[in-house]
Q: What sequence folds into this?
């Protein structure tokens, strides 16, 4: 049995900021939802089901917040699901929402992912002290920095590549009115001059902590006909592996490679760098751009990634534009970050990305990962309805 | 829609689990049971989905280590919901319906005894106007029970009848942690605890885990002579506010019931953590007098958080497999005072 | 000996919540001694006001002051209060429909026994002595003396009539509306280690580093696991590993963070102990951070035995052995 065609016809996001003190959690979500519905030319009453995603409940101190949010999100009286797959959750949530349409269960599904990180402190929430356990890390940066070092060693990368990526994404963010970080003065040199936080990761090579939300409206083929520019879903994939395992490759995890292979196969793509016009890849620390480029098959393993990033190929006018929105490096409401990648990919193939539009983008990748580089969610969207 | 059936089910329930809240230790033997029931290995599972809660465990990412129990080299197609097992099963059912996979194993776990459960659950309420007061689950259920008593929708005797039947049936369920029925009169003579509730009106704090295996079409038929086919699966949610809801009703349960065909149901496993909630659910589902309710003893005798709902579906399925009934419904609830409800209709013949 | 090790842990944070305009209006009212409801599109006055209309889904914009007196519509008794509740002695929770409102709100009702509480009883607000703009400004409801069981004085449609506005309070709230609340969330848990982890911690309490071998893939896990993550089989055969190993990779932590126990800068490194197939994360000291290298050979430096508990922290840090660095090929598969 084949999947029913499904398309994104509405994308909405908040203005991401360090603290959105002007809104409640419901208000934050509704800001994204209302924009997505407006984009889709639908109302909450048209929606059949709602899928909510966000990262750990400890961030906001609410257990299963979708329950208290149900009425404000327009979910009362409807099916409501809540997904939580760590940092990949925004992507996984979009995939679950897609599957509601692809399964033929619903015709018009709203999905929203959010994080209001200013309600607490992400470093605390990610590293709540446990008895017997020894705290060594300093949040996510401390976790990922050793693996970045491994990548640099393995690929013999020059150490300025991380700065090239960071400066590129921050410049891209200037073209995105919703981006959190909007600093016109970021250059490779300024990134290299910023404080070394978790050596080898510098301050300007890390993502901010943001309040924000993203919402998508995903519909069936009949409903999509009313849209001038639906983003058709060509493939979706989720893969998971363990946080730690003997001889697990933490730089280029098998789950990531397996997910990419399955995704390209579903989408009928044999040469990603030639066939994908824009990629929104989850890059919370700049070095993950070259790492994921290799893992996703855009470049050869053990060095192809940094050469691509260094060459400028991932810039907006490059061969494979990556994170034209500014990416996670410019806005990181954790639970929503994955859905922002998925949504920005949809905007590209809909020709609706505004100033950060890649001319003529026909197929785009949305990518998210989470946990200790162990949960992966990805999709390919296209301007044409898939043939299969 | 593809024909999808419940073909495997395993559970563990206990008053107090002395192991890690990641519950990997509980999951390993559950998966082994599922493999034994199906004759499969982990590599025959197309999709995995789990349900659990970080706040129950008292740490972020409490579900992350659970995948160890699967053995994830090679990596797996996997997801997680911060919801009960029944909704994890719903996500897996969707995945099978898309045609992407043909089989799924879903699981859930929770160590409620790690904290003070009725207090922890206050974090599920409106964080601005309710949680700062820490209303506990038992009290909220008490407010709901009294609303029904005052409205004449039920009385303490009807509640005691539910409890007595549940405790009596639980004697035949090795997993129930509270069992031993007596008589309605004896139960009514026990002291009122959280007025109007007596202790036996409230589910016991329970630790545990459960797993359910789904398969489509011929793969289900290969596993069992009589798979429990899912002929209806629907869920819905109500506003959380205790003030704007009619507490004597559960509209989301009624909506779920309207979306499936309950005609001819012989048995219902209802996830009612408080005795009066069974009475609400029976009404909303329109169950006839002769429908057998909760032969497992139900949630009043054992209610592991995050698997308690899914266990109802598993219990219903096992009675389809055995041929005891031909059509049954499993129900799961979540949130305060029956806020969110799911129904899964299972049939032996399709 | 218990099967597993366990210890108490408290997970606590004072959450800073921004309220948005609707809840802000409600909390501003509480601070100023006025309970504010919202009128929904069906004409009802709802307390607390919902942020969005349940029917039109539009943000709520019409606010109505309601009375500080009302009627109990349902209640339950709390024989054993839990931490953080409005009272630390038995009390009632009540749904109270305030005069002027159409729906009840939940709060505590001060009573000394369930006999004093009944549905239909009249109650009034008892304000907190200090009000800050939070739901706790409303300390509780209390019975209106002498009116127990008496019907509300304004039955029927009149009760929905808006109360006269308190202009002074309105003026005050305009000057500084409440836009945020601080909500302490503190939960106490008993945290237990798995049996395998417990064996590991007990070993550390004896100055030993214990792993277990996976019976399927033969890999030695430190700490041992309830399931080998590759195979799903519990690790079983106990293996004591060396206290010397190789740094596979590391980072230098320069950033201070909430809850940090060690003063930065320090090196956090993965150490692959000889005899183990998985690295443990620990501190590297006894060498300038800038000199730490991948492949460096290090050994465990234990705290004085008197300070040992059941934790990897019994090892204070690892320090260089002085041996030549390990060849990259010996640990490249552990990155």
A:
């Amino acid at each position: 049995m084949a999947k029913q065609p499904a398309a994104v016809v509405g994308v909405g996001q908040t203005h991401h900021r360090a603290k959105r003190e002007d809104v409640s959690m419901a208000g934050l979500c509704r800001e994204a939802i209302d924009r997505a519905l407006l984009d889709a030319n639908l109302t909450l009453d048209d929606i059949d089901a709602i899928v909510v995603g966000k990262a750990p409940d400890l961030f906001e101190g609410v257990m299963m917040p979708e329950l208290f949010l149900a009425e404000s999100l327009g979910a009362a009286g409807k099916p409501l699901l809540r997904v939580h797959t760590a940092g990949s959750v925004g992507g996984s949530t979009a995939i679950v929402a897609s599957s509601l349409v692809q399964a033929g269960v619903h015709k018009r599904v709203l999905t929203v992912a959010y994080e209001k990180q200013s309600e607490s402190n992400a470093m605390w929430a990610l590293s709540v002290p446990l008895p017997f356990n020894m705290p060594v890390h300093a949040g996510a940066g401390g976790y990922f920095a050793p693996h970045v070092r491994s990548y640099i060693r393995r690929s013999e990368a020059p150490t300025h590549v991380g700065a090239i990526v960071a400066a590129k994404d921050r410049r891209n963010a200037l073209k995105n009115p919703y981006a959190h970080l909007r600093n016109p003065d970021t250059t490779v040199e300024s990134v290299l001059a910023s404080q070394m936080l978790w050596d080898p990761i510098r301050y300007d090579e890390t993502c901010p902590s943001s309040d924000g939300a993203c919402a998508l409206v995903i519909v069936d083929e009949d409903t999509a006909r009313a849209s001038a520019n639906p983003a058709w879903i060509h493939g979706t994939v989720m893969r998971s592996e363990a946080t730690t395992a003997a001889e697990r490759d933490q730089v280029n995890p098998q789950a990531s490679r397996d997910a990419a292979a399955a995704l390209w196969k579903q989408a009928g793509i044999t040469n990603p760098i030639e066939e994908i016009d824009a990629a929104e890849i989850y890059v919370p620390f700049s070095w993950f751009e070259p790492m994921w480029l290799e893992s996703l098959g855009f470049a050869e393993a053990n060095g192809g990634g940094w050469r691509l990033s260094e060459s400028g190929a991932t810039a907006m006018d490059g061969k494979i534009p990556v994170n034209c929105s500014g990416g996670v490096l410019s806005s990181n409401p954790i639970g929503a970050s994955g859905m922002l990648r998925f949504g920005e990919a949809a905007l590209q193939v809909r020709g609706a990305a505004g100033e950060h539009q890649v001319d003529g983008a026909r197929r785009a990748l949305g990518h998210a990962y989470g946990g200790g580089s162990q949960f992966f969610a990805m999709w390919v969207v296209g301007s044409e309805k898939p043939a299969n | 829609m593809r024909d999808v059936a419940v073909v495997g089910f395993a559970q563990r329930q206990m008053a107090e689990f002395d192991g890690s809240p990641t519950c990997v230790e509980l999951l390993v033997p559950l998966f082994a049971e599922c493999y034994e029931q199906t004759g499969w290995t982990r590599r025959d599972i197309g999709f995995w989905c789990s349900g659990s809660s970080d706040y129950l465990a008292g740490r972020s990412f409490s579900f992350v280590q659970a995948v160890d129990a699967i053995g994830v080299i090679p990596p797996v197609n996997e997801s997680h919901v911060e919801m009960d097992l029944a909704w994890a099963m719903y996500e897996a059912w969707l995945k099978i319906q898309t045609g992407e996979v043909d089989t799924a194993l879903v699981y859930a776990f929770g160590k409620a005894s790690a904290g003070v459960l009725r207090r922890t659950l206050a974090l599920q309420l409106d964080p601005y106007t309710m949680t700062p007061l820490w209303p506990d689950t038992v009290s909220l259920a008490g407010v709901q029970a009294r609303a029904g008593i005052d409205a004449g929708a039920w009385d303490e005797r009807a509640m005691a009848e539910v409890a007595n039947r549940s405790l009596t049936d639980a004697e035949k369920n090795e997993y129930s942690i509270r069992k031993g029925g007596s008589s309605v009169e004896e139960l009514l003579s026990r002291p009122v605890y959280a007025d109007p509730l007596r202790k036996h009106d409230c589910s016991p704090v329970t630790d545990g885990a459960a797993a359910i295996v789904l398969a489509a079409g011929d793969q289900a038929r290969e596993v069992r002579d009589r798979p429990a086919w899912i002929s209806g699966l629907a869920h819905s949610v109500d506003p959380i506010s205790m003030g704007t809801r009619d507490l004597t009703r559960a509209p989301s349960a009624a909506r779920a019931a309207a979306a499936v065909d309950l005609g001819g149901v012989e048995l219902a496993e209802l996830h009612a953590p408080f005795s009066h909630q069974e009475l609400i659910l029976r009404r909303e589902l329109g169950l006839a007098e002769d429908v057998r309710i909760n032969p497992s003893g139900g949630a009043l005798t054992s209610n592991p958080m995050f698997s308690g709902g899914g266990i109802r579906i598993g219990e219903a399925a096992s009675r389809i497999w055995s041929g005891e009934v031909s059509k049954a419904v499993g129900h799961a609830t979540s949130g305060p005072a029956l806020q969110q409800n799911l129904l899964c209709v299972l049939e032996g013949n399709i | 000996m218990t099967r597993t090790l366990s210890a108490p842990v408290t997970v606590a944070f004072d959450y800073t919540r921004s309220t948005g305009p609707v809840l802000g209006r409600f909390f501003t009212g509480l601070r100023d001694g006025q309970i504010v409801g919202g009128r929904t599109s069906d004409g009802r006055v709802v307390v607390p006001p919902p942020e969005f209309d349940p029917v039109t889904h539009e943000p709520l914009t019409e606010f109505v002051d309601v009375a500080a007196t009302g009627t109990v519509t349902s209640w339950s008794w709390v024989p054993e209060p839990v931490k953080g509740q409005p009272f630390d002695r038995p009390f009632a929770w009540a749904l109270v429909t305030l005069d002027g409102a159409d729906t009840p709100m939940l709060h505590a009702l001060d009573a000394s026994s369930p006999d004093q509480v009944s549905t239909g009883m009249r109650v009034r607000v008892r304000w907190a002595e200090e009000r800050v703009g939070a739901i706790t400004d409303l300390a509780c409801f209390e019975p209106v003396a002498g009116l127990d069981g008496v019907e509300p004085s304004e039955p029927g449609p009149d009760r929905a009539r808006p109360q006269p506005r308190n202009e002074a309070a309105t003026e005050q709230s305009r000057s500084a509306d409440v836009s945020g609340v601080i909500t302490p969330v503190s939960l106490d848990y008993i945290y237990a280690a798995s049996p395998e982890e417990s064996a590991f911690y007990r070993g550390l309490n004896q100055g030993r580093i214990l792993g277990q071998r996976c019976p399927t893939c033969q890999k030695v896990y430190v700490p041992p696991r309830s399931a080998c993550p590759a195979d799903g089989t519990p690790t079983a055969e106990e293996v004591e590993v060396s206290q010397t190993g190789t740094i596979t990779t590391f980072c230098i932590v320069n950033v201070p963070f909430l809850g940090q126990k060690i003063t930065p800068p320090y090196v956090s490194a993965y150490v692959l102990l000889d005899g183990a197939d998985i690295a443990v994360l620990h501190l590297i000291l006894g060498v300038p951070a800038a000199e730490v290298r991948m492949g460096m050979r290090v050994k465990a430096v234990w705290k004085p035995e008197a300070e040992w508990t059941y934790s990897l922290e019994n090892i204070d840090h690892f320090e260089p052995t002085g041996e030549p660095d390990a060849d990259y090929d010996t640990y490249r598969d552990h990155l």
